[in-house]
Amino acid sequence: MAATAHTSPQPHQGNSVAESLQPPMGLRERKKLKTRLAIRKETYRLIAEQGYEGTTVEQIAEAAEVSPSTVFRYFPVKEDIVLTDEYDPVLEKQLRARPIDEDPLDSIREVIGQGLAAAVAEEYDELVQRTRLMVGVPAVRARMTETMATTSGVLVRALADRADRPHDDLVVRAFVAAVLGTLREAMLYWAEGGHREDLTELTDRALLTLRSGLRR
Predict the structure, then answer these.
(1) Residues 9-30: pLDDT tens digits?
(2) What is the pLDDT of residues 91-112, one digit of tens each?
(3) Which backbone phi and psi does 27 adopt, to 5 degrees?
(4) Comparing 73 with 122, which gets the higher pLDDT?
């Protein structure tokens, strides 16, 4: 997730949000990103057609025109294909670009809110399918906590540096854990409710509870 300016970056023609928001990359990195995106795209298509359990890595590899070993090189387990994305580097860059004196929660809300808005606008169907899998497939839901560790590290480093704290600071880690837990619950709530609510508004409302608690 990314983008902090009040005007969200616009994707280049034919590119995904993930591609357009990435920092400049060399040819090798661009090829890797395109391969990851192709694998993910074909995975979602196959799952929509035949279900999660009925979709094998071998089928995904054939559809994406890569070998099964290539799929596993990019995604160690099948669950990672639908759970991981390409936004962490941009998330870190945009978070570090927020005003140094801005409240950390407000910085998080801006970065995540506009990143979600871009994803909803350009990748809504994949987002719906991903969150349905989070709710309906135990293996995906179990893996979700593990995959969030990478994003946690990104946020901890960025926020610790802004606050001039060490990267293993307990307060920063606790704050980030609360943020990611809130995001997870907002995503699950959105899916359980049939994706009827505005995800960006729902997520922002959930994040604000970290400031207000259960007070009305």
Answers:
(1) 333 334 455 555 555 667 888 8
(2) 888 999 999 999 999 999 999 9
(3) -60, -45
(4) 73
Contacts of 77 (CB under 8 A, 6+ apart): 143
Q: Could you tell me which residues come within 8 angstroms of residue 32 by beta carbon, excluding any fewer than 6 positions away?
A: 74
Residue 14: Cβ within 10 Å count: 7
Rg (CA), the chain: 17
The model's pTM is 0.81
Read off the tokens for 76. Answer: 């160690």
Query: Which letter, b or e, does each residue of 122-146 get, where b requires 16 or more Cβ atoms within 10 Å of its Cβ?
Result: bbeebbbbbbbbbeebeebbebbee
